[in-house]
Amino acid sequence: MDMTSYSPYLEYLGHESQKLNRLLKTWANINTGSRNIAGLDKFLSLLEKTFQKLSRNTETIPLPAQTSCVRKVRYRCR
Predict the structure, then answer these.
(1) Considering the entire predicted model, what is its pTM?
(2) Tag placement on the chain: N or C end, fewer CB within 10 Å?
(3) Among positive and negative, which fits the CA dihedral 37, 22, 51, 75?
(4) Nearest Cα to 47, choosing from 19, 28, 27, 67?
């Protein structure tokens, strides 16, 4: 397998590793337990901000919750 085609991506990740590490730690430190709606909403907000950097055409699609204590959404870039 020729890995040279991946070089630009690997180089980018190398340059952005500290930033990506901080982002991952920020996400991991949010309490997103299924019954913690505030934590899930906070995480969704951070995901929206992050994905909007990738594409201006994004949408949050509400999904039916199985119980009143659960937040279900699907997020996609168009």
Answers:
(1) 0.65
(2) N
(3) negative
(4) 27
